[in-house]
Amino acid sequence: MSDLTRMSAVELAGAIKNKQVSAVEVAQAHLDRISAVDERVHAFLHVDAEGALAAAARVDKGEITGPLAGVPVAVKDVIATKGVPTTAASKILEGWRPPYSATIYERLQAAGTVPLGKTNMDEFAMGSSTEYSAYGPTNNPWDLGRIPGGSGGGSAAALAAYEAPLAIGTDTGGSIRQPGAVTGTVGAKPTYGGTSRYGLIAFSSSLDTPGPCARNVEDAALLHSVIGGHDVRDSTSIPQPMPDVVAAARLGATGDLTGVKLGLVKEFAGDGSEPGVIAAFRESLEALVKLGAEVVEVSCPNFQYALPAYYLIAPSECSSNLARFDGVRYGLRVGDDGNRSLEEVMSLTRDAGFGAEVKRRIILGTYALSSGYYDAYYGQAQKVRTLITRDFEKAFEQVDVLVSPTTPFVAFPFGSRTSDPYQMYLADLFTIPTNLYGGPAISVPCGLSEGLPVGFQIMAPTMADDRMYRVGAALESAVGTFTPPAL
Amino acid sequence: MAAISREEVAHLARLSRLAVTEQELDQFAGQLDVILQSVARVGEVAADDIPPTSHSVPLTNVYRDDVPQPSLTQDEALSGAPDAFDGRFRVPRILDEEA
């Protein structure tokens, strides 16, 4: 048997099913790999070796079967996992063990996947580099001096470092796709409402979308099919059946895109992408044309306002959602000396427990929701959201999917964008429109620029997640996958 | 001209129950000013007759049957509390001594 940590999820599931290898052996190989490299990568905040081996043993006993039975998975630390520490990479939740599990975690367990532990992220999923984790950044396996993207940098780095074949992320403004792009891995944001938010620690409830991360498109589609679908515990969950994303990925892998129309967003052309990113994107576009696809230029004039609208809507929702961290029901409490009032203790707890980016966004959101500013900021941003949705709907009358680079730049060195928060926000320039619209989008590795991975983004209409998997798998069949240097 | 003053940031921090330090105030005031000047671009869009979008899913009033479901036990609900007593969350003083 070849190195178990280099195999795809599909290969691992097949080998386990055919008894060529046991699920326990697969779990142990990944735990060993984590022990060997994670000191340098820091993808994990918590490794649950005992839980992983127990889950694997149940698969070996034949108690659980299914398309991903026995396959290890790394879970972003913003997902509530019963009895397993969950911090959202914040000091305010240090040591918290949730008394319940997220729906998607329960589905992972029911499918027989083997959760290895919890991955690092920007605190409360606010950031694009994991530099805002309260527990220190994750290092990009392609170059340990560079960021792995964010907020889900830990999940993406765990894949690129062969610590896990599958991972779970959450995408509010690009937190699955941008880490995928800069680590040479696949990251998919499902249609909003296509994957349950129950048990996801809320950042921006109208945007947050959990989704799959993997090293290839078919693995991502399989993971998507396991976690997706209606959930009565999330009132924004879509009751209609979701499209067959696995079949779409397999269709795309045949390499035929005859008749598929790809929309190139005119307004993204002049937006300051690095030359190497543009070159890799253009070459990939030509590869898709060779597979039969047609490229059509489309105009989405309101996309230029997506980033400003997002940085009003997301902080506004975050300022409300994070009010729950009050030092009473869970997590940290600071300054309770018997003399201080509840309000004083609450304020001291929140100042000590939240990092700078979280505080900036809470203050910004409180401002945008204040009477006197509400109409000019939050209200206006919601109207812009309508216009962006209309841009998407009009574009999808002409084309099947929209394509762009996932992020304007390759993995940047640590510290290069933290002094000016707005420079960090620009990492999400191309991913944010999709979140405001609510549709699905995927990032697929498409090439290298100066030795670092570039991601290709495919955006589809709401509830047409299958389209992005088809085009993504076709792209992968044309350009291949990308392997980082040995750690 | 600055979009937001240091005093305004201090007021917003109080409203947000964040006991920020003087040093944090200095840092945040400048950064928030840059961010606000950038996001204010949403005001350039003529959108008077455009309805707002709060949510992308066209669902309203999602109901379920009024049947009790299993939920957390009292112990489970209190399991993460920084301070609990006699089956309840214990909180710092809420009222003034004299009140």
TrEMBL record, chain A:
Which EC number(s) are documented for this chain? 6.3.5.7
Alphabetically list the UniProt keywords: ATP-binding, Ligase, Nucleotide-binding, Protein biosynthesis
Q: Which InterPro entries match?
A: Amidase, Amidase_CS, Amidase_dom, AS_sf, GatA
Specify the enzyme's EC class, one word.
Answer: ligase
What is catalyzed by this enzyme?
A: L-glutamyl-tRNA(Gln) + L-glutamine + ATP + H2O = L-glutaminyl-tRNA(Gln) + L-glutamate + ADP + phosphate + H(+)
Q: What sequence ranges are listed for the domain Amidase? A: 25-467
Superkingdom classification of source: Bacteria
> Where are the active-site residues found?
K76, S151, S175
Q: Which GO terms describe its molecular function?
A: ATP binding; glutaminyl-tRNA synthase (glutamine-hydrolyzing) activity
Presence of keyword Ribosomal protein: no
Cellular component GO terms, alphabetical: glutamyl-tRNA(Gln) amidotransferase complex
Mind telling me which Gene3D superfamilies this protein's record contains? Amidase signature (AS) domain
Q: Name one GO biological process term.
A: translation
Quaternary structure (record):
Heterotrimer of A, B and C subunits.
Q: What does this protein do?
A: Allows the formation of correctly charged Gln-tRNA(Gln) through the transamidation of misacylated Glu-tRNA(Gln) in organisms which lack glutaminyl-tRNA synthetase. The reaction takes place in the presence of glutamine and ATP through an activated gamma-phospho-Glu-tRNA(Gln).
- Which NCBIfam families does the protein's record reference? gatA
Give the similarity note: Belongs to the amidase family. GatA subfamily.
Tell me the protein's name: Glutamyl-tRNA(Gln) amidotransferase subunit A
Q: Which organism is it from?
A: Paractinoplanes tereljensis
Automatic annotation (TrEMBL), chain B:
Q: Which reaction is the catalytic activity of this chain?
A: L-aspartyl-tRNA(Asn) + L-glutamine + ATP + H2O = L-asparaginyl-tRNA(Asn) + L-glutamate + ADP + phosphate + 2 H(+); L-glutamyl-tRNA(Gln) + L-glutamine + ATP + H2O = L-glutaminyl-tRNA(Gln) + L-glutamate + ADP + phosphate + H(+)
UniProt keyword list:
ATP-binding, Ligase, Nucleotide-binding, Protein biosynthesis
Which SUPFAM superfamilies does UniProt cross-reference here? Glu-tRNAGln amidotransferase C subunit
Q: Which Pfam families match?
A: GatC (PF02686)
EC top class named in words: ligase
- GO terms for biological process, alphabetical: glutaminyl-tRNAGln biosynthesis via transamidation; regulation of translational fidelity; translation
Per the UniProt record, which EC number(s) apply here? 6.3.5.-
Q: Name one GO molecular function term.
A: glutaminyl-tRNA synthase (glutamine-hydrolyzing) activity
List the InterPro entries hit by this protein, alphabetically. Answer: Asp/Glu-ADT_sf_sub_c, GatC
Q: What HAMAP family does UniProt report for this protein, alphabetically?
A: GatC (MF_00122)
What does the annotation say about its assembly with partners? Heterotrimer of A, B and C subunits.
What does the similarity note say?
Answer: Belongs to the GatC family.
Q: What does this protein do?
A: Allows the formation of correctly charged Asn-tRNA(Asn) or Gln-tRNA(Gln) through the transamidation of misacylated Asp-tRNA(Asn) or Glu-tRNA(Gln) in organisms which lack either or both of asparaginyl-tRNA or glutaminyl-tRNA synthetases. The reaction takes place in the presence of glutamine and ATP through an activated phospho-Asp-tRNA(Asn) or phospho-Glu-tRNA(Gln).
Output this protein's name.
Answer: Aspartyl/glutamyl-tRNA(Asn/Gln) amidotransferase subunit C
Organism of provenance: Paractinoplanes tereljensis
Q: What is the lineage of its organism?
A: Bacteria, Bacillati, Actinomycetota, Actinomycetes, Micromonosporales
